[in-house]
Amino acid sequence: MSNPVGQAVLWLNDPLNWTIPGGVLDRLGEHLSISAAAVLLGCLVAWPVGLWLGHTGRGGGLVVLVSNVTLAVPTLALLTILPLTFLGFGRPSVVVALAVFAVPPLLANAYTGVRQADPEARDAARGMGLSGGQVLRRVELPLAVPYLAAGFRTATVQVVATAALASFVNGGGLGQIIRAGFGLDIAAGGGQIIAGGLLVAGLAVLAELVLALVERVLTPRPLRPARRRANRRAADAVAGT
Amino acid sequence: MSFRLSYRADPGNPWFSWQYVRDNSDTIVAALRDHVSLTARAVLIAALVALPLAMVAHRFRPLAGPILAFTGVLYTIPSLALFAFLAPYLGIGAVTVLSVVVLYALLVIVRNAVAGLSQVPPEVREAAEGMGYGRWGRLLRIELPLALPGILTGLRLATVSTVALVTVGVVVGRGGLGQLIFAGFQNNFYKAQIMTGTLLCVLLALVLDLILAGIGRAVTPWLRGAR
Fold it and tell me: pLDDT digits over B123-140, tens only?
């Protein structure tokens, strides 16, 4: 078959392409472990900071600034710069580079989630004698859960998508299949390139669908109508409006 | 002074070197020019397609759902995968890079333009109707100007993310400044070259953003007094 899509189907139907060392299954494992580590690292950094900034009500400008700056820095630049620092070549620098791009949605949503908590609920909690930390933990945090879930979803899908670029620095992941296809020459590798693209895109869409479900389950029923608003408000926060 | 110190600490491979910039100014300027032209063409094409699309989505409500859903799905697809889908058909070169970048810029602009159009107050819409504007006349002469802040936000976001995204074009050999960054990585991890490419990328995004912000201020004089 000469058309690239037919070649891609052929490529995907060859079991050897899946089970060979460095095949689809290996790359999928790498892709998922890199993404998971990056999202985890992003959450560990962004959520405490976002929740605290939201609680104190300061630093809205900082949240917008972080989002805007990371939007302007090319992923490729971070992926090539970090291995040359103390992080060294390999997994850690890739994970940190991806985590940097997970931070803005996580941070913005955590901040917005706490800020949007009903001021009356906050005042009532204060009036009941709760300390600042208790208000954050027992009133604001539960109310922010839909926003945290929305941010988690956005960040994860973005990391899973961006992890494909790790292949530029031989960082592993499914992008490696696409890069190898481009290495072959466009006529010979066309099928493999499209097959790799299908795998990467499929994984990203799958992550989006699964996390949409998780987000729905995690959101307590009374807060569910707020879900759409959460996405929109967080988008506004990132857009700086 | 600090440059000289860092040079001494790592004589073979400094993070930044004016020497490199001077010796390779031709390559750097060529990469920058390529980057600017790709970005400008992409945002222009995207805006020309996105604005009518947003107006259609706003004017014919049943179409808004599908248009926004389509742009949403498109945004989930990783850039490298889009390159992979298009490159076997469009070949290696600027056309492929432009197509991918335009698709992403398109949906950012469409979303913000639709949001801007739907934020026009209903009273204004009714007043326009009362003054005898037709549906299209109202859209073009009343709603579109009032949606300008939303549209400009979309343009600015699209421009900044396009500047970053063009670098991924390295995969088909036309990444503008990305070409510089990637070549620096491959040529013995030449830090000065990587850093120069990165800094120029960020600066370019900043400058274009400021220019668009300035244009935005100029075309929405009624917003200035309110601040």
Answer: 888 888 888 888 888 888
